[in-house]
Amino acid sequence: MDMHTQQEKASILLIYTGGTIGMIENPETGVLESFNFQHLKDNMPELKKLGYSVATIQFDPPMDSSEMGPDSWMKIVKIIADNYQKYDGFVVLHGTDTMSYTASALSFMLENLSKPVILTGSQLPIGMLRTDGKENLITAIEIAAAKENGLPLVPEVCIFFENHLMRGNRTTKINAENFNAFRSFNYPVLAEAGIHIKYNNVQIHVNGEERELKPHYLLDTNVVVLKLFPGIQENVVATILKIEGLKAVVLETYGSGNAPRKEWFIRLLCQASARGIIIVNVTQCSAGTVEMERYETGYQLLQAGVVSGYDSTTESAVTKLMFLLGHGYTPDEVRDRMNRSMAGEITL
Question: pTM of the full predicted structure?
Fold first, then answer.
């Protein structure tokens, strides 16, 4: 059986959560509002021409991605887990604003994933003439269906947007108005869509042996992001670190993981670490990695019990912490697992 006929029979589940791709303009106010998913099919006769069987499930009501959070992630995981055997791949339509958070969370929550889960959406609604939605959706479906020798080409959680397929937990939204809204700064793209889709096979994660999907539904959101800036005050940092119930901090530092050497700052971090609060160091820079041994200012953080986030995005660090805390690991176990790659989210 040649590759093409094999793929013709591919079955894809399209999960519409909400977002710009499926919106229409309210004629009265000119504001974009969600609409019924049937409109999408009406606006896209191309779906029929693809030759795959595409089934759809939609969130009711659809959600703007700024409203998406752990409950929605669990909902998506449940839909994928319940339908895992029935489909060759999954495409999740999602608003762009928090898509990188959802993709990161799903990469941890779908353990042993061996089928493609491709998130996509658009900057312009699908009913608009110049929409980027059609191309994003069609290519995402093609990638979700792509197999070689009967095995899926991309068995991981990805974002496809404007010609690039990226590992989900490596992405960040970088642009609120251009079509190239996402970037994967610290990891090469997994595929590029031109006239043909060129897969960067070396970079794609492949499972050795087929293991059973283990969906996870436990998340603990007692996490905060603390972004350093010149002139940050002691009482601000102290107040944040004393938040009732706080379990982990993603500390956004400068450059390769540097922070001021002020006595009060190091002291507060030491005290928080001693109380069992996990502090993970990620850089404010878009690209690059944390190397706390490199400068004295970073080395002091290391001694204060701060853990390196390596080249993790903030989105990935936040969702990984929620995941690990949700599973009840001790602070030391969480620190240990933050230093290991669970789903290709960091380069060690």
Answer: 0.94
